[in-house]
Every structure is written in C-alpha cells, then in structure tokens.
Amino acid sequence: MSSAATTIGVFVFDGAEELDWAGPWEVLSAWAHGWPEDSVEIFTLARSDGVVTSAKGLRVVPDHSWDTAPLMDVLVYPGGRGTRDQLGDPGIGAWLERLSGDGTLLASVCTGSLVLADAGLLDDGPATTHWSALDKLSRLGSNIDLRPDDRFVDRGAIVTAAGVSAGIDMALHLVARLSSPDRAREVRRYIQYDPEPPV
Fold first, then answer.
1. What ranges do the domains of the chain cover?
2. Residue 158 half-sphere exposure, CB side, CA atoms within 13 Å?
3. Which member of 110, 114, 117, 171 is catalytic?
4. Are residues 7 and 70 in contact, defined by beta-carbon separation less than 8 angstroms?
5. 117 is catalytic
6. Counting CB atoms within 10 angstroms of each CB, which of 7, 13, 137, 159 has the fewest?
7. pTM of the full structure
8. Architecture field, domain 6-190
9. Which residues are within 8 A (CB) of 191 and not within 5 positions of it... i.e. 6 or more apart?
10. Model confidence over 108-163: pLDDT tens digits?
C-alpha cells in the first residue's frame, strides 16, 4: 500500500441486505481501527442524504451521499431486494461506470453483482452471486463465466461475492490483497471469524 490513505466506501440503499454491507463493514472497519498504521478510511454512502432502511428493517444514516463522498479506492456494493429497483437505472449505471473508469475497485456482495452486470461491467469474465440469482446474472450480462461454487471471484478491477455471509470472506480477501495475508489473518482473529455452523 502507498503512504496515502486507502479509502473504502460501503454503499447502502433501501432494501439492502443487512449482512451484505455490515459484514464487510465489520471486517474493513476492524482493519481500519485496529491497525491505523495501514492508513485505511472507511465510510458509508448512499445516493442521497437521509435515513436508509435495510431489507430486514435496520435503519442507518450514511456518512456521505454521492455528491459528498471522497474519492474511493474501493466500493462495496451489497445485494438484497433493493437491487431489483436499480436494474435499468441509468443513473446507477453511469455512476458505476464512472467509478470503474476512475480506477475504483468494485466489490459486490450477493445480488449486488446483478447491478454491476446490468451496467455491463461483468461481461466476458468470471463472476458469482447468490445461488438463487445465478440465472438472472447470466441474462443481464454478455458471456459471463458463472462461478456457482466460489465464495468470491477476483477478476482484478472487480470482485464479486456469493450470498450474504460470503461478503465477510471477500472483505478478508480485500485486506489480504490491499495489505497482506498476515494482516488479513490478524483481522480474522480479531473478529473471531472461524465459522463452524451447528447445522
């Protein structure tokens, strides 16, 4: 990493799945706060000012709107039922294309990848999403190489994660990519992420 701060924006919107954004937020903010020498800044942003209500009812006040957000090195784009209203939205597509063109690393979780595909950003490469949306993902883009068994797929400028909890894995991958695998292990240990589901 360079000496300049790495800025990470976590996009929130009405109908975003809570863990899709809060999982990566926990990982990346734990990194930012626990290792300040890495110079990481993380914030939430929404399309406009005001309270955002997530899919299960959790309400959040974003730090920034599109207009006030700093330049971002990374954008985390969650999924959830709210993504369906974003498909075909030219404003969303233009915003994502501009960020991509400016070199922002786009990292989607769950059905956030549908919005990236709708903007033409996943064409001719590998990607994943929630298992229930794989067919829709293939229809939204051109020649997308679906990876249904991958927790996340890193194709360089874009990283897509499978459903909900896979965003935590993806965020740890981002720590490893932007800093080091050792740092990612330290963050993983700090948040005590060692899943052993009982069912």
1. 6-190
2. 26
3. 110
4. yes
5. no
6. 7
7. 0.96
8. 3-Layer(aba) Sandwich (3.40)
9. 26, 27, 30
10. 999 999 999 999 999 999 999 999 999 999 999 999 999 999 999 999 999 999 99
